Amino acid sequence: xxxxxxxxxxxxxxxxxxxxxxxxxxxxxxxxxxxxxxxxxxxxxxxxxxxxxxxxxxxxxxxxxxxxxxxxxxxxxxxxxxxxxxxxxxxxxxxxxxxxxxxxxxxxxxxxx
Amino acid sequence: xxxxxxxxxxxxxxxxxxxxxxxxxxxxxxxxxxxxxxxxxxxxxxxxxxxxxxxxxxxxxxxxxxxxxxxxxxxxxxxxxxxxxxxxxxxxxxxxxxxxxxxxxxxxxxxxx
DNA sequence: TATTCTGGTTACTATTGGGTAACTACTAAT
DNA sequence: ATTAGTAGTTACCCAATAGTAACCAGAATA
Lengths: 113, 113
Fold this sequence. Notes:
2 copies of one chain form a homodimer.
Chain A: H1 4-7, H2 12-20, H3 24-32, E1 37-38, H4 39-45, H5 51-63, E2 67-72, E3 78-83, H6 85-104
Antiparallel strand pairs in A: 1-3, 2-3
The first copy, chain A, binds a DNA duplex through helix 4 and helix 5.
């Protein structure tokens, strides 16, 4: 969940960390990328996330304007998610994190599975 | 604390999030910046962090190679912290987050305190 | 002699995060 | 009549996180 103190901070950077500074949100944003994706797909692709937590995180990301939720009035239900302009603008930051990680984590990767 | 599953993931991005994807670490790295800073200063500057948690986070950041801890054999004790090359390389990412936040959070800031 | 200074550590406790399993709605297919 | 399928929600529970307060060393200062 979001940290209320962080989100209400007078410091913009702290507020930003309150918004995206947890373990699941960067993962979710990264998996979504530029595509439109359904709830069930996210649940299947992201390892070890429960539907409960996925629901919570998606709801917060929507509230914070990072993604859009499009629910079709069908049965069985269908819900699409896609990143908003703000969410898309966050993707380059995730790419920078990947580069950073790659640069300083040269060793290993040999016996990883 | 670090998430073991994330840190042992086969996905480098997930490992990166396991390393820096929590609320305190980006804050600490940002406060440190390019300077050398003492434990007590960090404790005083970072709002609402307890010494216990600060100690834990600093220890993990050191283990993950993001910062260096320099303890002087003095009394009363003196310990300096400063970012390593890896930690310094993370600063531009934090700057990008600030820009991103600034771009999409234009409104308000009027009655905030 | 008592206090201050620094960078912690420890024990205890409260709060939160997150996992599991069961359940829902409604239609279509078997 | 039953089952499958989707996107959740709900209740329950356990483990992890973080906060608080007390304590430590050992020299310097009052």
